[in-house]
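EI: anyone free to look at a 215-residue chain?
SC: sure, send it
EI:
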Amino acid sequence: MKKTVIFILLTFIFSGVLFAQADYKKIPNTQVPAVIKEIRSKTAQFQTVSSDFVQTKEVSVLKEKSVLKGVMYYKKEKQFRWEYTANPRFIFAQSGSKIYTQTGDSVRVIKDNSVRLYEEISKLVQSSINGSIFENQKDFSILLEENSNSYRVTLTPKNRNLKKFIQKITLVIDKKEMLATQFVMLDQNGDSTTIQFSKMKVNTPVDNQLFILKK
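SC: here you go
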């Protein structure tokens, strides 16, 4: 009986510790500039980043989740590739001001807003990697929180056009690597998109041809 009671107590204690570690606390306003400076000093060193990802889409009117897997490549100076590896294969690529998509073997050069979601993902991932995400206080209000392992950044739109589509965006940034490991976008209709990154590689060679899709 004693052993059972001790086991239960230990379970509660360790559960409490784990929950405490997961809990985020708001960083005082006076400390925010120093934290941002620390993050940016690290991200300034990133020339390339590549990663696997899992994207989970939850639609409020549907019970089942949509799960897609893929790979992401980033290179400094607006080079970005977002590729779903499962069928049907889809690629979004950006090289400077040029944007491409590929579905199967069909390649398009994009000159309209038909791939708005992927453009937003591109902006979000790139700005988190290069640290410029903290500069966009014209379009977003920014809440910065932390726990022992990570920072959590919550972006709430102030821009009227963004408010039409997005309730908020949440990023989790690993304190050791200063890389975003998770994004959550909550739409105004209650749908959410969660992107979880893994196997991240920094400053390894990435071919420029990955960002240019040819017909």
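EI: Residues 25-211 form a domain with the outer membrane lipoprotein receptor (LolB), chain A fold (CATH 2.50.20.10).
SC: 👍
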